[in-house]
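tokens incoming
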């Protein structure tokens, strides 16, 4: 995965929140970027850190970490008006390490790796998830090796998913969704043996690790659940 000092070849497209159909800042053809330079926008280093080859990301960027009060103007036209929040769509085509050796694909982790992408302030977290809870989540899952979409509740076709935590339905989620607050967003990198193992599924070869981004929407204890087993929808 990408880290400081790496040479990335990537494509990106940035739109303002107010004009999501207008590409305000983009690289249509793959462009070189050296991680650690922040020479696109201030938030770019953080946005592309930890990416795998062929991974795609959608990143929300507040105005002060984009073009700030200055905005971006070409001639008489504002491409990015001052104080505009932005959304960037980024795809990593190639990755080279500090020695300029090409990194084709990283090795998947041996155990589930968990990273908190959006924290909830301690004073706002009145209840965190525990074994036996039913969690209502949105998630977006891609294949580890090529970044191709596997499944998502964010595509408009599937509702949020209900999942019973700690019952072994999907071990990688049991590993990564414990002690989580409503509103929190986590990235889970799940090795094959904590996911679907050697079972082949639609759009997923046997033995495939996966990358999930999971947002916790609700926590319900067992007594309030209808006990419907939804884990097969993963």
């Amino acid at each position: 995965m990408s880290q400081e000092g790496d040479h990335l070849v990537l494509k990106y497209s940035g739109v303002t929140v107010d004009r999501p159909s207008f590409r305000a800042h983009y690289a249509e053809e793959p462009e070189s970027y050296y991680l650690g330079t922040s020479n696109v926008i201030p938030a770019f280093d953080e946005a592309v850190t930890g990416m795998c080859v062929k991974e795609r990301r959608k990143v929300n960027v507040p105005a002060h970490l984009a073009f700030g009060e200055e905005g971006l103007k070409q001639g008489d036209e504002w491409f990015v008006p001052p104080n505009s929040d932005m959304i960037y769509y980024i795809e990593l085509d190639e990755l080279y390490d500090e020695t300029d050796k090409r990194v084709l694909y990283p090795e998947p982790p041996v155990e589930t790796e968990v990273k908190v992408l959006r924290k909830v302030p301690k004073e706002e977290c009145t209840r965190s998830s525990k074994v036996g809870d039913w969690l209502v989540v949105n998630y977006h899952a891609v294949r580890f090796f090529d970044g191709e979409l596997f499944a998502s509740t964010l595509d408009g076709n599937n509702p949020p998913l209900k999942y019973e935590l700690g019952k072994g339905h999907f071990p990688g989620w049991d590993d990564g969704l414990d002690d989580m607050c409503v509103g929190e967003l986590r990235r889970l990198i799940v090795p094959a043996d904590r996911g679907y193992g050697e079972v082949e599924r639609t759009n997923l070869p046997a033995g495939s690790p996966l990358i999930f981004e999971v947002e916790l929407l609700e926590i319900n204890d067992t007594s309030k659940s209808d006990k419907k087993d939804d884990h097969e929808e993963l």
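note: Helices lie at 44-48, 171-176.
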